[in-house]
Each structure stands twice: as structure tokens, then as C-alpha cells.
Fold these 2 entries.
Entry 1:
Amino acid sequence: MSTLQANVVTPDGQVFDAQVNMVSVRTIDGELGILPNHIPLVTPLAIGAARLKQDGEVKMIALSGGFMEVRSDEVNILAESAELPTDIDITRARAAKERAERRMQEAKQENVDFRRAELALKRALNRLEVAKR
Amino acid sequence: MANLKEIKTRIGSTKKTKQITKAMEMVSAAKLNRAQDKTEAFQPYKDKIREVVGSIAQGSEEVSHPMLQDRKEIRRTGYLVITSDRGLCGAYNSGLLRETYNLIQERHQSSDEYGIVILGKVGRDFFQKRGMPIMQEITGLADQPEYSEIKNIAETTVQMFTDEVFDEVYIHHNHFVSAMTQRVTETKLLPLTALAAEAEAEAVSTPDYIYEPDAETILERLLPHYAESLIFGSLLDAKASEFGARMSAMRSATDNADSRIDDLTLSYNRARQAAITQEINEIVGGAAAQG
């Protein structure tokens, strides 16, 4: 089975670096799967989980925004934060989720705080989702 | 003549000070190492963003973005100044602050024409005391800062440019040259006019990307990220210089303590010798008188 090199990089360093069979991410327009020999592509990512398929095994990584660059035999994911399930602090994510929910109830819908809280909530939910698997 | 006990106490206290400065030197050296590792870990992220942004800016000329263009009228300039929280690092802060202060005085007539975003306690106190407009501040950053720690301040600073609070933004920080030398540098953060030119000069051969959904949307998303990552890069650079500066400041303090101890030991020995000589003289004198 052909493979492609997948790199996940954050400002704090490299999180993932290995050969995989398939990469699937959530872009701002929806899910996108990349197989080897894909045409070069650049796309921004939404907050969500990246799934990296490696010999029948699926690795999950929680991503917070960023973007993906695809070349024929290489995928580079650049995210503000990227965490493997083992790196996720579940208690912290849960606390963040509750805090964000509280803030969203307090703040007005069109408020900046509301949007911030919404993003925080998305990140927290994403982390919890990835950690659960 | 200083009495023996007094000199002995001073030797003791100088020795203790030396132990402290020596320990701080070694701690700073270790932190400097880690800061350099951190800078290295960050490099690929920044390079990649730059490569992609550059290739977009270079590839399709129709694509434009407010962040890539100079504003016609500069009403307010933003200065992002990176200082440390603590002292004991030689001229690290004072050199930077002096230069920034002079530059601002030179360039602007009134405080409406500029705003300061400050990192670090020393700088905050400095500008506060002089009544200069601090728009944002953050203190108590970790020695090895994580991206998430400065994400907010970086985001807001970039947002301030987008909202036209600032028409241009400069970063002032100590650039790490070597462990012994730091250079005060001013870098233009926004607008990112240099970016397209740099990409052109390097002429990196990038594949013809498909932009999904389109180049404009990607620039919209990527440019703020890029600017934020530049701020983070400067912070890491500044941290490395801080430890370098602290290390060499502590090293010279240790050296000073050493030579001080030598001097004191010499005068201690002299005083002791003089006391012995005097005692012998007295004994000899006494014996002669009895004689």
C-alpha cells in the first residue's frame, strides 16, 4: 500500500512525523481526505480532529485551526495547537467546556466575548471527543 | 588598619554572593539552551507558513490583502516592545528601552500618534512612569513560553491593525546574536510589505497549488497567523537573549567577586602579618627593658 509523509507542526514543535496511508481532516468547508499522489493543495482547517490512517490503525489528533499543505507525497499540517489523545488534559478540557458554556449564556449573541467563548467551547469539545477514542 | 575580624566577615559574605551569582549563571546557561531548542522547534512552523504565503503572494498578482499594503496615511504607529520581568541581566532592558524611548520621541510629536504593546514588567513600569500610552500589556510569561500564552495579545495586536487602530506595527526586541551579545532590533511587523518581495528574491520553486476554497480566503486566514507567529518568534528570540544577557552579567559578577576575594585575602594576610610583627616587637621590647 502506498504511503505519504505526514507532518503535524505547531509553534511549539513537531507533534507527528510518520508515513501514513491516508489523512483526513476537517476544513472550513467540510471533511477532506487525502491519499498518496494527491494534487498540490492548500486549505485552511477548522477546529476538529485529524485522522491519520496507518496500516489499518487510525491515529487521532485534535487540531485548533491552522492550515494544511498537500504535495504529491507529503502532507504538512500547521496548527496553532495539535494534541495526540495521550497529551490531552481531560479535566482541563472539561473545565474549559463548562467555562465556555457559562460565558456563552452570559454574553450577548453578537458580542465578541460570545464568539470567543464559542471557539473555546469548540476546542474543548474537540479535545474531549479525541480523548474519548 | 581594618581589623582582622571585619575583613574575615567581608570575605565570607563575598563568597556567599559569589555562590549565588555562580548558581544564577549556570541556571541561565541551562535556560538559554532550552530557549534555543525552543526557537529551533518553532522554525519549521514559521518557514512553512512563509513559504505558502509567499507562493500565494508571488503566484497570482491579482490577489491583494490590506495586510500586504502600506497605508497611505499613518495616523498611529504601534510598538510592540519585548522586555523581561526581572532584572539582573545587565543592560538587557535599559538598552532596549532607551533606544525605543528615543525613537518614539524622535518620530512622534504627541502621544496620539503611537501606542505601545508591552511584554514584561520592566518595560511596563518604564512606560507607565513616563505616562506613555500602553494599549496592552502582558507580564509573568514563562521562561519557555508556549504559543498559547501569547496568542491573545498577538491576536489582539494584529486585530488592532485590521481595525485601523494602528496603521503600522513595529516590534522592538533584543535579537540574540550570541550568548555574549544581544542587539536591539526594530522589525516591521505590519503591513507585511517585505513578504512578497522576499519571496520573489528567494524564488522558491513551489508547486502550483490548488487553493481551497480560493487564494483570497486563504490569505485572509493565513496572514494574521503569520503575523502572530512572527510575534512569537521575536519573543523566543528575546527570551534567548535575556538568558544570554543574564548569564554574562552573572559571569562578570562572579569574576568580580573572585578578584574582590583575592584583594580581601591579601589585606587580611597583611593585617595578620602586621599584628604578629607588632606582637614580636612588643615582646622583644619588653625583654630588652628587663634586660
Note: Strands of chain A lie at 4-10, 13-20, 22-27, 30-34, 41-44, 48-54, 57-64, 67-71, 74-78, 81-83.
Entry 2:
Amino acid sequence: LSLSCPGQQTLPDFIVTDWLASSFDDFFGSASIPCSAVAVKPLRGRSGRGHGHKQEHPTPVTESSKARAPARKRAKPSAVDVPCARTRQSQSQSQHELLPWVERYKPETQNDLAVQKKKIEEVETWLKTHVFQGQPKKGGSVLLLTGPPGSGKTATLQILAKDLGLQVQEWTNPLSLDFTKEELKNMLDHDSNFHTFPSQAQAALFQDFLLRANKYNKLQMLGESSENDKKLILVEDIPNQFYREPGSLHEILRRFVRTSRCPLVFIISDNFSGDSNQRSLFPTEILEELCIFNISFKPIAPTNMMKVLNRIAAAEASMNREKSYTLDRNSLELLCKGCSGDIRSAINSLQFSSMKDCSLEKEFWSKKKKSSTIKCEEAEVSKVRKKSKCDTSEDQDIQAIGGKDASIFLFHALGKIIYSKREAVSEAESPQLPAHLSEHRRDTLLIQPEDIVEKSHMSGSMFNLYLHQNYLDFFSDIDDVVRASEYLSTADVICSNWSTRLVMESYSASVATRGVIHSNTSRAFAHQHGGKGFRPLHKPQWFLINKKYQENCLAAKSLFSSFCLPPECLQTELLPYLAMLANPMRNQAQIAFIQDVGRLPLKRHFGRLKLEALSDKDPGVPELFQWDGDSADGNPEGLPLPSSQSSTSDLPGSQPQPVTAQAILDEEELQIEEYDSD
Amino acid sequence: MSLWADKHRPGALARLDFHREQAARLRNLVQCGDFPHLLVYGPSGAGKKTRIMCLLRELYGPGVEKLRIEHQSITAPSKKKIEISTIASNYHLEVNPSDAGNNDRVVIQELLKTVAQSQQLETSTQRDFKVVLLTEVDKLTKDAQHALRRTMEKYMATCRLILCCNSMSKIIGPIQSRCLAVRVPAPSIEDICHVLSSVCKKEGLTLPHELAQRIAEKSGRNLRKALLMCESCRVQQYPFTADQDIPEMDWEVYLRETADAIVGQQTPQRLLEVRGRLYELLTHCIPPEIVMKVLLTELLNNCDGQLKGEVAQMAAFYEHRLQLGSKAIYHLEAFVAKFMAIYKKFMEDGLDDMMF
């Protein structure tokens, strides 16, 4: 075996260790890996250690994932077995008490889970159909679990796997330290691909893992029962390489799906910042192509969360009354609200705020309680305002506890602004507006537009663009539109100066959002639910349009520089007429450009430009905005604008190909020569 | 085969077709071999560039017409590379500094410096100075204009500037006072008719006088546009007839349709459609200011005299906003919405008056 690895011959001491290792592998693994299979396995240009690593793979993967699991932030079943540790020995009990509550009170049965019952059932049925009914007829068995962090994705899967008697084989990203000296040396020898090597190796290892885990069963160790040979593969850590090149992951998945024997589960947390993992790694085409089933978890509902928190608080209180401070119901509710559906963070902050020996904390809590009770009393007096008042006061409280920063997806943020909720104000309570201002009378808003913009994690001007794209659908009166559009226009002017933009953007968003909310008279009062029902939301077209405008202007300048005209004349006079002249002297790129830009789709019943719908979890920043920098090599073909060429069928016969950027550059060079010869 | 506008461009001051008196004066100006910095201004299509090139030819001889396009890259102090293309002959350099956007100051400083610092080698056949022709000076930022003022003083010995722009109003006073201002007014209708018929004669075509008159009127006294129109008439139909259609530019027709759509219905849905059309215009390289201007003209054609003042005022207001702001669509849309509201109110009032 060692002879088949050329790298080992030069370094004797490595041979020894490697030999030892591989021989142990053989010793343990003889049952499952026949020697012939190992010998035949191709090396694929990788060094000896890599080969050894491969051999020992089937054994250590399951082992190491189990062993490493407790070290990771997430709770694993092996970490704690029984929730009530008092019956155990003292040592294990003290150890148990040192565990964070998240670990100590991790759910054990389906009933403990705070996740919606429906979601659990969904996952369960999927697992059942794909594990126990053998091979599904079509497509592979890949499941994708998504949802915000702390919504119980992993816990659900672990518990279901336990209930169904499935082994979970989990992929963990190997550390780069796993490379041996020899491998490093190899890498340094061919230093040409030094930088790319580790990541490629990671991707290769991942592929290897998938295929092996798919093919081979876990080794049967001494004392383990052999009855459950069903298993599933779980991937939560995705090798970094795939973020850069999602294509390689798709390739691996395609291969996996073709040969899959056991289900593969991906767990990906939603995130609110622009780079959505789910969207880049699993675009919808791939989901459809590979029949990947996507189950999206919701944030834990407050009632479920309360149940769990109560249970934990009760258990703690019964266990050691002297050590921790018991929270009352009010505080628990505050906690619940503060962590926006993230149960892990809720339990953490519950533990944190129950620390008794922190005297400051106690005062802090009592003060909080007092203030909130006062608020509530107030609220009962003025019943009408109760909700909004309490909301704001509690919001502030939560900030103080150190709860999570709440954030909402853009889709919901826009919805909140557009379908602005109001609450009726009783006549007696609020001072009436004078008669000449009566048209501006509105019921109290139940939302804080500034908060919403902030929570959408977006710059003000960007949010305004989204708002601008969508507000018209929800207006029915043109006079309202006038006011709203004027506010939007003002908002744009406010943040136009680049030196003050950062500061002004929040003001600008405030003007725009409040302006749009206020001007929609069909939603002025609580009882009005404004003429229009649900309308789909869209992404702003402005970036695309603006980019195209800039690109076309640049192209015009470079293609027609020989006319020595200022851009404005060129674009508004020369190009449109050139389109009519069909002058034979122009070259292909020029003809194409003229026909595209000089012509407009006249007399056609105009529809709207193709819109990209904004879906539930889209990140805020459109992709166009991100590759603003390299607009030069954007391919005009890819832009979803309707080409106006389609409408002009009476073009001169030689209909040119669409211009690519390269063609433009080439033509530019030609152009200069041509001009010289004149 | 080039465009008529280029092909029949007069090459000498003496051969210019209109404003002959001014041409004679310009010839006198360069007779002595030197001239002050010039600031040539006038509406588009009035023949500013033609006049300048004639002047240079008078000064340097036919060598001026041998042009080459150069792409220069200038490094700004912030290490940013700026690409700009210039058109140059052996004697002069033409550049549009506003191509560089916000970095126009750097272009002015660096480019002029490199040109002006090198002395002319052979003073026997050449002049002592080079000429730099700056176009679209009114689009320069204030910064760049101040840089220009300094450069003008510093390199007076080796370099003359000819500034070319549409309007003097955006040029700072110090520059105006350092230049000899030459106003090139738009040609009159008769001038244009004359040019059109002479061009057609050179092309071997007969142009009916009525058609020439109509083209001239339609061109808005823009000679380039008139020539382009005439040439497209030729493509459309020859022999010419006096009452043939004069082709219009697509975007103008499109804007007229848009204006009709606005007048036809005043609802948010229609506004949404109009927004789509405005986007379409922008992607076809029509600058937002022009959209605003032409749209206003079309709308004014459609509305009652009473409204015109108010509508124009709104247009001015949003045009100003457009200049201040960064995203044109907000302001264009706000203007359209405002017009819709004004118009709708007017129509409803009119209906009420009719009823009672």
C-alpha cells in the first residue's frame, strides 16, 4: 500500500507514522473496507497523507463529528442525555450545572420543541418518505431547512432522527491544520497553486465525504447494536469554497442525487444582510432541477416561547432557589419580545437575567418592573392608547436587557409602510385640528416608520427606491399621489449632497415613509382598509435603468466619437436620425447600437417594463447595485429590458448581432483608423 | 459617404453661409497672427464649431483638418486614473472636459499644463502658441472653472484657449472677462432655407422651396437638425414633394404619445405606465432634462391657456429639483403627477361650469 504513494519514499519518518496509521485503519476497518478496494482507488494526484486520510475516512467522520459536536455552539444530543441531573452522581451534576441553560434544557422529545407542530410534521413526513420507502422515483432526496437563527431547525432534525432511529452523519469543515507537514511541503513545491490548494481540497474532501457517507455504512463498534442502519447526512457547515463558486456545489449535488441512497439535509440560517447564503448556494433553478425540498422555519411564536421559558424557569426555581433569581411573568414576556423569535438567545438572556449574585441586576430589574407596571396602569386609564404606549416602553426595556436587535425582511418592512396600520382615536381625547387643516387628520399610526427602515438593514435612499417602485399600486386618488411623489422628490433632494448623505439618509427615509403614509387618504383612519387589497411588491428598476443609460451614453460616445459632437446633441439629434438614414458606411456595432437606441417602440400598447417581484426573504440590495463597479463588462443581452428592436420589423436586411462589450472595444479601435484615413 | 452636415461643412471663414459680417470680423481678428482667448457661445446647431474650425484653418492652414483621436489617461492626485479622449491636430487640441464628470478640474489642470508647457519647436512655420479648444464649458463644475481661470493667466504665452458653450450664464465672471465673447446666434429661417437648397444642389437634388421652409421651421432653427431632417426626407422619398412628411425623431413622437396618455387619463395606474415610458426614454439615452423640457412643451400644447402658467411653474420647480437631486425619476414622476392633478381639477371644474 505504501509503495503506491510516491511521496512517502523520500521521507522515512512519515512512512513510519503513516504506516502505523494505515495499519491501524486496516485493523479496525477490515470489516468494511476490503483491501482490494483500497488498492484500486486512484490517487488523483494527491499526496500520501491525503490518501491515508481518505482511507481512514469512514471511521473518523462519524466519530469526530460526535466528538467535536459539544465543542460547537449548537446543542448535540450526545452532550446531555437526561434533563434532570439530580439523580446522577455529584461530579456529573456539577458539570451539568456548569452547562449553559441552552444545553441543559435542550428539547428531548417532539413535545418539548417550541417549533410549530406543522413544520415538525412536514420534516417528519419528508424523512419518512425518503428513508423508509427506499429510493424515490424521481430526483434525489435532498432537504433544505431554512429559517432565522434559533428557530429550532437543528433541534427538530436531531429529535426526529432520534425518534425515527436514524444515524446522523454530519459534515464539519476540516481545519486547515489537518494538513500534514508533508502536504504543506508538497504545496510549497508546486507553489503555483499554493493559494488555491486548501479551498479546493476542502471542496474535494466534501465531495469525498458525501459520496462515501452515501455508499458505506458506519462501522459497527463493539457493543453497538446493528439494527439501525438507516442514516441521514447532515450539512450545516458549508465549505467556504462553495460561497465563492456555488457551481461546484451544484455539480457535486448533481452527482450525489444520481447515486443517492440516504437523504441529505442542509441547514442554512437566514440572514438579513445582503449576501444571502440560501440564494447564492441554492438558487431556485437548482432547487427545481434537483428536486430539493425546502422547508422554511418561522421565528418561534411568542406563546410557544413563553411555554419553554416558563418550563425552564420553573425547573430552575425548583432546583436551586438560593442561587438564582426568579423572574416574574412580566419579565419573561419582555424577554420573549426582545429576542424576536430566537429561542436560543431567549434562553441565554433568561439565564443571564436570573443570575442572583448580581445585586445591580436586581435593582435594575425591579426598577424596570416598576416602570413597566406604571406604564401599564397608565395604559389602563387611557385604554385607547394602551397598545402603542406599551409597545414603545417595552421596546426601550428590551434594549436595556441586551436582547437581540430585531430585524425584519424588506418585504415585510415595505408591507408595514404601505399597509400602514392605524388605531382609532376617540374624539374626546385628541385635540381637533382646525377646520382648514381637517383634511390632514389621521388616526394614530401603530408603526414607527424610522424603526422599520432601520430594522430593514438598508440605507434610507435604497428604501426610498423600493417604496417609490411600489407605492403607486396602493394609491387610488391622484391628489394623494401628488403629495406622496412630492415627498419622495424632497427625500431625494435631501440626501443628494454626497458629503452629508450619510447623516441625511435617515431623515430622507423618514420624510419619504411618513410622507407616503400620510398622503394615502384611503388609509387615513383605522377603519379604512384602503381601496386596494394585496398587490405584489417589486424591486426597483432604477438601478437597471440608470446603468443602462450610463452604458448607452458611454457606448454612444465611443462608437460615434468621429462626429465630434457633445453628448447631448449626439444622443438627441444625431442618433435618432442616423437610425432613419440607414447609412451603409457604418460598421456592425454602430448599426446595432443605432437600431437599439435610436428607435423607440412607437404606437405599441405600452406595458410596464419587466418587473422583478420581491419575494418574502429577498435581501434588500439588488444585485445590480453590487456589481456597479464593473459595469463595463455587463452583457447587454442579459438585461431584462424589452429590446425595442422587436417592434421595428422593417429594419434593413442585415440585422446585426447584439453588441457585446468586446465588440464595442474592437470597433472603437477600427473607428480611429477609419477616421485617420479620411 | 458621410452625413450632409459633415460633407458640406464650409471650410473657410469666407465661405460661411450666414452671419457673414461676423465672419469677416473674425478674419480680421486673426489676420495679425494672434488673438485673445475666445468664448464662443450660442444655441446648438448654429455653427459655433464650424466657425472655430474655419478660424483655426485661417490661422494654421489646411494642416488643422488632419485630425486624430487620442485616448489619454490622466492620474488625479488621488491616484485615480481618468480616461479622456481628445481630438487633435498638430496645432490644436480639442477636449470635452465634462466627460470626466467630477474630475474635470484635474483634466483642465493636467491636460492644459502638458500642452502649454511644451513650446512650439518651429516658430518659422508655426505660430508661437497652440490652441486648446474646450467644448461644453458650461457643464464644468465651479472648481474646474476656477482652475481654468488660473491656467488661462499662467500659460498665456504658449497657449490660447477657445471655449465653446451654449450659454454664458453658467460661466463664472472671471472667465467671461478674460475672454473675447463671440455670440453665434441661431440662423434665421431664410438662412436655413438657403443652406438647405445649396446643399441639395450640390447633391444634385431639387428641393422645393416649400419643403425647405417647412423643414427649417420644424428644425427650431437648428441647422444640424435641419440638414439631418432633409437627409432623412431624401431617404424616405425622392423626388421631394412640397407636402411630404418630414420624419420626426422617435423619442419626440414617443414623448408626444406619453403626453397624450397623461392628458387622456389621470389615475395612479396611468402614472405607472408613464413611469415605464420615462424609463424607456432614459434607456434610450435621452437625458432627463430634455425629457422634462420636451414633455412640458407637449403638455403645454395640450392644455388650456389658463393652466399654462401654473404648469410651467411646476415644471421649473421639478426641473430644479432634478438638478439638485440624484435620481431623476422621482422628480419626473412628481411633475407628471402634479400635472395630472392640475389638469384633472381643471377639467372637473370645467364640467361643473358646463352643468350649471
Note: The first helix of chain B runs from residue 4 to 7.
